[in-house]
Write a structure and sequence with these properties.
Layout (H helix, E strand, L loop, with lengths): L1 E5 L4 H8 L4 E4 L14 E5 L8 E4 L2 E5 L4 H6 L5 H10 L2 H4 L4 H7 L5 H8 L3 E6 L2 E6 H6 L8 E8 L3 E7 L9 E7 L5 E6 L6 E2 L18 H18 L7
Parallel strand pairs: 1-3, 2-3
Antiparallel strand pairs: 4-5, 5-8, 6-7, 6-8, 9-10, 10-11, 11-12
Helix pairs in contact: 3-6
């Protein structure tokens, strides 16, 4: 339950507010506004802080935390695979409200966009009152404590390589039961990540997929999801010319 609302005009003021107990940053509000948590919280609206925008430099793409998902879809600076995954993330109405920073904070275990950002070696900049630090996206998803008392100000995404994405869902428009994205970097290395296999999207090792313990729900058992990861990973690697026959 939102009990207080603040709209600071700069990052320093926003950081002072967020450092207070029971106070959280507010991006697009698509997740926070829908929360049913009865505990009162204060929100710090980041709309006026100046954290949006997309720029490309030295082979990487810098994206402000308040950049809308639709802006990712529309930007020619963003890798094509990320643009496609941002389009899949939500319907048009939500893409024009939801922010990339909010998507990372929410850490939806079924997010296809987060899967893509993982394989594109995304680094997340988190500001605190004492300064800023850069963390890999996989570290941020695995340890939400890195965000405590701080604000995500931006992300840096690798701009090279080619990627292949595969998903299984009940219908084409439904959220995926499991999604896999594989990317071959410009240097020839391969990174693979999956959603639907744990509490958040995660990087996976194609040689250790049988060690995964996906959650079970009404859409499928843990074993079914583990099998899906293996099948979708095989398809993605085949697309990149890195299948078992290569």
């Amino acid at each position: 339950m939102i009990s207080q609302y603040h709209r600071p005009s700069d990052l320093d003021e926003a950081l002072r507010l967020v450092a207070r107990p029971a106070t959280v940053p507010l991006g697009g509000g698509t997740s926070l506004s829908a929360s049913s948590d009865p505990d009162p919280i204060a929100v710090v609206d980041l709309q006026s802080v100046g954290l949006s925008g997309i720029e490309a430099d030295s082979g990487r793409v810098s994206v402000g935390a308040m950049t809308l998902l639709q802006d990712l879809v529309d930007s020619p600076l963003v890798p094509a695979a990320i643009r496609d995954l941002a389009h899949r993330e939500a319907p048009n109405t939500l893409r024009n409200a939801a922010t990339l920073g909010g998507t990372i904070v929410t850490a939806d275990p079924e997010s296809e966009l987060l899967v893509g950002l993982l394989v594109y070696e995304t680094m997340v900049t988190v500001a605190h009152e004492g300064g800023s630090a850069e963390h890999s996206l996989d570290d941020v998803l695995a340890d939400s404590g890195l965000l405590d008392g701080g604000i995500i100000t931006g992300m840096s995404i690798a701009g090279d390589g080619q990627a292949s994405a595969h998903r299984t869902a009940r219908t084409p428009a439904d959220r995926p039961i499991v999604a896999v994205v594989a990317r071959q970097t410009g240097a020839g290395n391969v990174r693979i990540a999956a959603s639907g296999v744990g509490p958040h999207p995660t990087l996976v090792d194609p040689d250790r997929l049988d060690e995964l313990s996906p959650p079970a729900d009404f859409r499928g058992s843990s074993e079914y999801r583990r099998r899906l990861v293996a099948v979708l990973t095989h398809r993605a690697l085949d697309d990149l010319g890195r299948g078992s026959g290569e």
